[in-house]
Amino acid sequence: MNKKTLVVLAVLIAGLGGFYYYDTYWLTPAREKAESTKGRFWTVEPKDVEALTLKRNTDTVRLKRTADGWEMLEPVRTRGDRAAADQVVSSFVTLRTDREIDPKPAKPADFGLDPAAAEVRLDVKGRAEPLVLMLGGKNPTGVWVYAREGGKPAVVTVGEIALRDATRPASDFRDRAFMAFDRKSVTQVDLEFAGDRMSVAAEAPGTWRVVKPRAYRADADLIGDFLEKLESARTMEFAADGPKSLAPWGLDRPAKVTLWIGRDKERSAKSLLFGRVDAAKKGVYVMRAGEPAVMLVGEELWTAFPKTAAILRDKVVLASAWEKTSRVELAHGAGTIVLERDAAGWKITAPEALKADPGAVTALLWSLRDLRAAGFLGETAADIPRYLAKPDITVRLWDEGAKAPKTLLVKSFGETRGQQSMAVAAVAGQGPVVLVRAQTLKDLSKTVTDLRDKSVFPGFDLKDVTRARVSAGAKRLVVERSGENEWKVLEPSRGPAKEGRVTNLFLTLKALRWREIASPKGDDAVRFGLDQPGLEVTLLKGDGSELATLLVGKEEGALTYVRVKAAPVIYAVETKSLEDLRKAQTDIPGSG
Questions:
Q1: Are 295 and 250 in contact (CB under 8 A)?
Q2: Is residue 350 within 8 Å of residue 336, measured between CB atoms?
Q3: CA 95 to CA 41: how far, in whole Å?
C-alpha cells in the first residue's frame, strides 16, 4: 500500500469519525429536542420561566421565581409553594395544541374567549415580552378547551388540564410549610405562654438545657419532638390575610415560640404566634411573626408546645450507660441481692451463687432506665435527707471500669398525683428529689426467686441434637436427623417426620420454666409421680451420648411436677407448657 493510499484512508477515517461525533453529540440531540417540542405552543424550558401570572374572573395569582423557590406577589405577598408553581409552569411550557378550530373567528365569545376564562402569562429569561395564552370554554365533549396564543386570532383546542391548572385556587400556590428551618441548626428555643417566659439552649447534638427561668437539664426527647412537628407541619387552611382584628383567632394575646438559628454573627430568629384551638377543625390558629396571614395548622403541634418549665425539664431519674452496666446491688426489706455480668451473661453472686435469668435482669434494668419524674420536690442533694433518710429500696449501679457506683434511693410517699399513688426518689449525692409512680417500688422489689434463672432443661444448641426419644409407658417415639433441617421416624415404625413439630418439641424444652421448686433435694419422688414418670423426653448427640432427659410426673391442676434425670431437684411447671411434649408421639410422624 503506497503512501498516497494511506493518506486517503486516513482522511476518510477522520471524516467518518468527525461525522459520527457530529451526529452523536449534535444532530441526534437536536433531532430529539425538535421532536420533543413538536406541536408545543412555545419552545422554552421551564427553568427559564422567571414569573407566572394567572388572571381569572375573580382574582389574579402572580408568582416570581427566587433563588430558593417562588414568591407569591398576588393576591398576597408571601412564600410560594415550589412544587405547585414548578408543576404548573412545566405544564404550560410543554402544552401542545390538538388542532386548529377556526383561523380567524368572527365571534371569539362563541369559544368563551371574549372575555377569556383565564389568561396565562409566562415571563421568560431573555424575552422582552411575556408569553401569553388565553383559555376559553370547553368543547362539546368536555375533553378539550378552546385557546389562542397572545394576539394571534386562531382558535385551537388544548387539553382540559390546562384550564384546571390556570384556575387552581390561589391557596394551592401558597407555601404550606409555614416555618422552614433545619432542626440541626437550632441553637435556642424561646417560649412564651400565659405570661411565663422560658428558654432552652442546645449544648451538644441531642442535648438541651433549660436556661430560663432557672438552669436545669432539659428533656431532649420532648424538645426534639416539638421541633420535628414544627418543621414538618403544614398549613391546613389560610384563614385570613391582614385582618383588622386578631381576636377572633385568639391571636391578640398569643403564645409564642422563637427559634434561634446558627451562632454568633450568623444567628437569626424565626417566630411563630399561637392563637386559639379550633376543636371542630382539629387545629390551632397561628401566624408567622411580621406576616399578615392567619393560618390553621394541626392541633398536634399545639399539644406538643411545652407550656411550663416543669414540662421542659429532663425527667430521667437515673441516667446511665446501660449497655456498660456490669454490677447491680439491690437492697430492700427482703435483703440484698448482688448481680454481676461477665462474658457468659448475668449471674447472682449474693446472697447465693446462682445463674440469673437474662430476661428478668433486663426487665429490672429497663425499669431503672425508664424511670421518669412526675414532679419535683427538691432541687439539690441537701433536700435528700428530708425525704429519703430511710429509703425502702437502694439500688447501686456500677459501669465497667467505674470506681464508684451511682446510687438510687426510693421510698414510699403519702401523696397522690392525678389519683395515682406516688413514691419519692433521688440519686444519692446529686438531687433533685422527685416524685415517681408508686409502682416503682414493686418493679424494684425483686427477690432472688424473681431474678434467678428458672430454666428446667439444660441449655443446648438445636444443631447438636441428632436424635430424640419420647417415651410414654410402653409407647416410644424415636426420631433422627437426616439432613440439616430434615428428620425421620425410626420407632415405632420407619417413616417421615414433620420437621416443624420436631422443632416445636425442642423449643418447648428450651422455653420450659419452673413456677416453684417442689423439692430441692428430690425427696419423696413417689408423691410427685416421678418414681414412675408418665413421660420421658431424651435428646441425644451425634456420638450417641445423652444431652439430657426430662421426666414428667404427676399433674395437679395448673401445675405438673418435672425434673431432669441427671439432677435431683423437682420443679412445678405450668401444665399447659407441656402440651407439645404430650402430643409429640401423635403429632410428629407423617409428612408436612
A1: no
A2: yes
A3: 6
Nearest residue to 312 via CA among 408, 229, 384, 213: 213
β-sheet with 393-399: strand ranges across: 354-355, 345-350, 335-342, 325-332, 393-399, 406-417, 420-427, 433-437, 375-378
Mapped onto helix, strand or coil, the DSSP state of residue 355 is: strand
Hey, CA dihedral for 318, 323, 326, 332, is it positive or negative?
positive
Cross-strand partners of 293 = 241
* Helical spans, DSSP H, in 495-571: 499-511
Which residues neighbour 549 within 8 Å (Cβ) at sequence distance 6 or greater? Answer: 536, 537, 538, 539, 564, 565, 566
Reading the chain (592 residues) residue by residue, the pLDDT tens digits are: 566 665 555 656 655 655 555 455 544 444 444 454 567 888 899 999 999 999 999 999 999 999 989 999 999 888 899 999 999 999 999 999 888 999 999 999 999 999 999 999 999 999 999 999 999 999 998 899 999 998 899 999 999 999 999 999 999 999 888 788 888 999 999 999 999 999 999 998 889 999 999 999 999 999 999 999 999 999 999 999 989 999 999 999 999 999 999 988 889 999 999 999 999 999 999 999 988 899 999 999 999 999 999 999 999 999 998 999 999 999 999 999 999 999 889 999 999 999 999 999 999 999 999 999 999 999 999 999 999 999 999 999 999 888 899 999 999 998 888 889 999 999 999 989 999 999 999 999 999 999 999 999 999 999 999 999 999 999 999 999 998 889 999 999 999 999 999 999 999 999 999 999 999 999 999 999 999 999 999 999 989 899 999 999 999 999 999 999 999 999 999 999 999 999 999 999 998 6
Listed residue (211, 193, 197, 206) closest to 305, CA to CA: 193
Scanning 476-578, the segments in alpha helix (DSSP H) are: 499-511
How far apart CA 574 and CA 578 sit, in angstroms, is 8
Q: How far is the C-alpha of 29 from the C-alpha of 430, rounded, in Å?
A: 73
550 within 8 A of 536, measured Cβ to Cβ:
yes
| 3-class secondary-structure state, position 228 | helix
Q: Are 340 and 332 in contact, with CB atoms under 8 Å apart?
A: no
C-alpha cell at 304: 406538643
Query: What is the separation of C-alpha 18 from the centre of its chain, rounded to a whole number of angstroms?
Result: 57
Helix (H, G, I), strand (E, B) or coil at 128: coil
Cell, residue 412: 414510699
Segment (H or E) for 51: strand 49-56
CB environment 498-533: b (16+ within 10 A), e (fewer)? bbebbebbbebbeebebeeebbeeeeebeebbbeeb
Residue 475: beta bridge partners? 472
Q: What is the pTM of this model?
A: 0.69
